[in-house]
Each structure stands twice: as C-alpha cells, then as structure tokens.
Specification:
With about 260 residues, this protein is α+β, with helices and mostly antiparallel strands. It contains seven helices and eight strands. The strands form two sheets. Strands 2, 3, 4, 5 and 6 form a five-stranded antiparallel β-sheet that branches. It has a three-stranded antiparallel β-sheet with strand order 1-8-7. A hairpin with a 6-residue loop joins strand 4 and strand 5. The two termini are about 60 Å apart.
Length: about 260
C-alpha cells in the first residue's frame, strides 16, 4: 500500500514539473494570448512645377561727392529719376520702396579728414511682368551708380500648390495600397499619417537667371540683354518645384 502511494506521488510530481509556467505582467500575458497585429508603412511623394509670377528686385544706388550734402542731393536726384522711369514703365509707385540712406566717409592716404562722402540707398521693386524686369535692366545699364543687388522670384499660389502636391502624394500611397492588397491577398486599413513634409524650392534655372542678372549689372562689359534674353533662357521668372512626402501606417489583415 505504501509503495503504491509513493508511485502515485512521484507521477503527480512529474506532471507538475512538465507543465509550462507562465509569468509576467497582465500586458505581457495579453500579448501571448492576443499577438499584436502587423503594421506596415507606405510612403508616397509628389512634385509639381510652377512658374514664378512675381519678382522683387533690389537696386543699390551709390553716389559719392566731396561734400556730404552734395552726395545726399545727388543720391536723392538719382532715386527720383529712377522712380519716374519705373512708373513710366508701368510699375506702380506703391511697389517701389526706398530704404533709409547711409553715408560713409572715404579717407585719403594722408590725414584724418575724409576725402569724400559716399551715400548708399537701396530700392526694392516688386514686379510681375517680364517687360518691367527689362526696364529695370536698362536703367542699370544706363547708370553707373545703380546696380542690381539681388533678385528674388516668388510664386503667389503657394497654398494651392501645397494642397495639390499633398493630394498627389496621398494618391500615390493609395495606388500602392491597392497593388499590395491585390498582389498579396491582404486588407490594409489606415490607422495613422506621419511625415507630412511639404516644401518648395527654386529650380537650378531660376538660380541661374539671378546669377546672370546680378553679374551683368555689376560688370559694365556684360550686356544684360544679350546674356539673359538672348541666352536661350525661357523668358519668364522661371520655375519653382513643390514637393510633398507622406507616410501612412496600415493594419494588415487577411482578406475577408
């Protein structure tokens, strides 16, 4: 009888030792009983090209005279002449802005007394037609004391094109989703959007135009018209590229 009880006890002990022991937090146990669903991320991108329809041209007007008062008067007369010529070219007066002038004495080799006085003023001009840019270029060719400092090209429909590239990037993602579902026999359900990256930039052509404009205005031996309008460049304020990159997370499930 004792032997029989001993054998039964050993068998029960062996059964207990063979059973797996499950430990962990409730969250860990839920993970074992209900494994996490598969999540995949699909990325999409899009580009749209637009032509700038606005430019802001900065002119530097520099006059130098022996007396400061004469330098100021000469700068004022020249700016008034430029303003009149620009308005005659069809540019509204409200689109022509002059900054406050600054003067700097020019010293000679000997002595502390300034040799002359230089007055510098910046004029910014907002334009939206190619002919207006042509008129500005002619003024810089005709006046040694006037040069183009820089030209900024802008596109006025930023909001519209940002929305457009975002929609195209999302459409790219949806097309990829349809291909995966058809090819793999799965169902993809969107659960989140990440990486909403939308921006725009000037093309290399736009930067090349600015380089031609500025270089020609600073070098009297370079003719602006022959280097820009006759150089094969498109007669426009050139291009900007809008770009969008989106990422969407999908839950993967078997097709029902």
């Amino acid at each position: 009888m004792k032997l029989t009880l001993l054998i039964i006890s050993l068998l029960l002990s062996s059964a207990c030792l063979a059973a797996p022991e499950i430990r962990g937090t409730p969250q860990d146990l839920r993970g074992l009983l209900h494994p996490a669903e598969n999540i995949v991320t699909i990325r999409g991108s899009a580009e749209e090209t637009a032509y700038s329809d606005k430019a802001i041209v900065s002119l530097i007007v520099t006059t130098e005279e022996e007396l400061l008062s004469n330098a100021i008067d000469a700068n004022h007369r020249l700016r008034s002449k430029l303003h009149q010529s620009l308005t005659e070219a069809g540019i509204k007066g409200a689109n022509i802005k002059s900054s406050k002038f600054s003067s700097s004495p020019q010293y000679g080799w000997m002595g502390k007394k300034p040799k002359s006085y230089k007055v510098v003023n910046r004029i910014t001009i907002s334009i939206n037609e190619e002919s207006q840019l042509h008129s500005i270029a002619q003024l810089t060719d005709q006046n040694e004391d006037v040069e183009i400092a820089n030209t900024i090209f802008e596109h006025s429909e930023k909001h519209l094109f940002n929305k457009k590239v975002k929609s195209r990037a999302l459409q790219d993602i949806l097309e990829q989703k349809a291909d995966y579902e058809k090819g793999l026999g799965v169902q993809l359900t969107p659960i989140g959007i990440r990486g909403d990256n939308i921006h725009y930039r000037a093309t290399e052509g736009a930067m090349a135009i600015e380089e031609v404009v500025v270089t020609a205005s600073r070098d009297s031996s370079i003719n602006f018209e022959s280097n820009f309008f006759d150089s094969g460049q498109d007669k426009s304020f050139d291009e900007v590229i809008y770009e969008a990159e989106l990422s969407v997370d999908f839950r993967v499930r078997p097709q029902p």
